[in-house]
Amino acid sequence: MTGRKKLKSTLSDLAFVLLSLTGVCIFVLIPYADVIRRSFVNVAGTKFVFLKNYLTVIQNEAFRLAFFNTLKFMGICIPILLAFSLLIAVFLNAGIRGANYLKSAFLVPMAIPVASVVLIWRLLFHENGYFNGLLHLFGFAGADWMNTGFSFWILVFTYVWKNLGYNIVLWMAGLTAIPGTLYEVARVDGANRRQCFIRITLPNLKSTFFIVTVLSLLNSFKVFREAYLVGGDYPNDSMYLLQHLFDNWYRELALDKMSAASVMVAGMILLLILVLQRYWDRE
């Protein structure tokens, strides 16, 4: 009888997830399996070419430029975003006056349309924008900042500014889960704020740190809209990202190169997430 109940419970659980599982298979797993298949065949999909598409992608200068720019972007943005959002979350969680209003203020950038943000950057940093006008007042020569290496740092600032509030909310969820008694005992033993932060706060935020890092990594691929509206299909080399490359290859219907590059990038992201997870589990 126990076995029948367990089987009935299992079938009932499967019935609840069957619809979602079907949707995932149709719209995610099966299409991605087709992408993997296309990475080993020619453009027409009629001839097996083994690793030729992967070699073509690796030897492509545009791919190398976009790949290293994307790595540079993530390597700069994610640590800055994690550090700033954590410090602000700790500050807000300390119970300062007006903390709720500050939290709302940090979430406002998420509600601002991308086109409005890009319009502000153009007004400020265009060749005839306000920043150049200010420089001319002091006798300095201006530049078309959106077409120089400076545009990369504008993109970095945009990413951090737009995702800061989201990460603060995640950090504060982890901070509120830490028992207050731990801090009380530590203060009785003579621990100061820095010691409490290092010995209590950081170790108890380990799982939250992993979640915030992964989400920040995934969100770093969502800055294409800003970069595209600023520089178009072929922006300055400093902010030519993988998203630009995939967009251009998709327009050219270079399905073989796009499939191979997608598999490589997705595999690297998955490997990075697994390495992070293993590191946090070990800690």
Report the major sheet: none
Apparent shape:
flat
Tell me the β content: under 5%
Helix-strand pattern: HHHHHHHHHHHHH
With helices defined by DSSP (H or I, 4 residues minimum), what is the helix count?
A: 13
Average pLDDT, rounded to a whole number, is 83
Helix fraction? over 70%
Give the strand tally.
Answer: 0
Radius of gyration: 24 Å
**Structural class given helices, strands, pairing?**
mainly alpha
Distance between the termini: 43 Å
Low-confidence stretches: none
Description:
There is one protein chain. Helix 4 crosses helix 7 (150-176) and helix 7 (150-176) runs antiparallel to helix 10. The longest helix has 37 residues, at 2-38. The two termini are 43 Å apart. The chain has helices spanning 2-38, 52-59, 61-93, 99-111, 114-125, 130-137, 150-176, 180-188, 193-204, 206-219, 224-231, 242-251, 255-282. It is mostly helical and 283 residues long.
Topology:
Elements: H1 2-38, H2 52-59, H3 61-93, H4 99-111, H5 114-125, H6 130-137, H7 150-176, H8 180-188, H9 193-204, H10 206-219, H11 224-231, H12 242-251, H13 255-282
Helix pairs in contact: 1-13, 2-13, 3-7, 3-10, 3-12, 4-7, 5-11, 7-10, 10-13
Summarize the structure.
This protein has 13 helices and no strands.
List its traits.
283 residues, mainly alpha, 13 helices
